[in-house]
Request: fold
Amino acid sequence: MSADTPSSSPAADPRNPRYGGVAIVLHWLLAALIVGSLGVGLYMTGLPFSPMRLKLYSWHKWAGVTILVLSALRLAWRLGHRPPALPAALSPWQLAGYRVSHTLMYLLFFAVPLSGWAYSSAMGMPIVWFGALPLPDFVPVDQPFAEAVLQPLHKGCAFTLAGVTLLHVAAVLKHHWIDRDGLLKRMWPAPRKESAG
Reply:
């Protein structure tokens, strides 16, 4: 899920086709949290009301807020650090697909947790991040609005993010196994002797 756009600027050094360590760590942390949060979200909604379901809802909310914070950090880092150049063999339609899918992923990185936060607030269930930091209500309590609008919005955004993520993974694997253009290596953690940069 390397949601970065290609650059033709001299700052994108073709001699160093890898992302930096901070970008790589943020990428894989977000990937793990998003996949885990989607999995927990799907599982918990099918459970009967129980202490386990309440615990999973809390974990899901904590993960969502963490995703929101990391997405903001990643966006701030990206604005100050240009990504490495893309393989020169990419066709115009591949570049267009790259830009559209990565822009959409960035939007969804924020839309999914924000819509979940709004839904929780509207249901009158405040979020206490990791059980220690109470977060302000995002919207006023309004359960009919929460169930009719915010819950479908959150679910729709989450499923859209899952679909775009699957397309992203499929495209990366296609470039790695079929095109063999080294695209995956841009975001793959470097061996220890290379990881100093």
Q: What stands out?
A: Residues 21-192 form one domain.
